[in-house]
Amino acid sequence: MRIAVASGKGGTGKTTVATSLALSLDTTRTMVLDCDVEAPNAHLFLNPTFERREEVGILIPQVDGGRCSLCGRCAEVCQFHAIAVIGQNILVFPELCHGCGSCTLNCPEQAISEQLDVLGIIEAGPTPTGVYFARGVMKVGEPMAVPIIRELKRWDIEGGATSLSRQQDETYDWETIILDAPPGTSCPVVESVHGADFVALVTEPTPFGLHDLRLMVEVVHELDIPVGVVINRDGIGDAEVDKFCAEADLPVLMRIPLDRSIGAGIAQGKPLVAIRPEYTDHFRDLYRRILDIVQEAEL
Ligand code: SF4
Ligand code: SF4
Known about the structure:
Alpha-Beta Plaits; 11 helices; single chain; Rossmann fold; nine-stranded mixed beta sheet; alpha/beta
């Protein structure tokens, strides 16, 4: 099962929930993907040893002026206006290019080759707890997170990361993949939660928390994925988040109280279940409730 843990804004405790949920399950059959490629931090709680690293990017067209007949076909097929014929020249605008390869395929003179523009890296490895971990890290200043997240998600599907620390002939069947999504509601978030069986939205009971929760609920409904809410720092604000959840028929699956000792432990890089071991049972309950909702949605 693929569970995405998301929130409409940063700092709600999304990574706290994602990592402690993973640590509460059968860790040897659980994988965590940190999809927050602009600011990954789940590794701080899981302490992986990275065994594999790969550059990720998009293929940018390079035009061979000697072959190009200036027919303009490449510019016609490019939906992103990333290549243009201007006078006797062909210009490529890498910052607009999505690396779709359409121009290369459609060039009648085979004048276009492709070169990898590195956007970041993906890396993976085991953790001392048995949870397997992979993350994407975007290069500073790069504008595109989505290709890195897409590649990170593909890794586990194709078995790349899953086979890294295992015997060659051993088949790995992850029971649970937990995707720690980036904050916000933009394209990287949509790419992260797309294909998940369930989205757990982490929020806090404040006006800001409610505002961003509403936005994120719209996104998840649009993607038609079952959703539930985890309220973190319960007790900090008002009852408006509960009211909204009741009205929108959103199950509140778990509450984590406002507690200074939890905050202090997390600031030291300790997972919630290490600070408060009794939370292991709460996260197992959360998992069971998610399982029930997913099974009900499949009927
Ligand atoms: S690879 Fe795609 S986006 Fe980039 S220039 Fe070619 S057609 Fe346009
Ligand atoms: S499609 Fe090929 S030949 Fe035509 S303008 Fe583009 S690069 Fe040149």
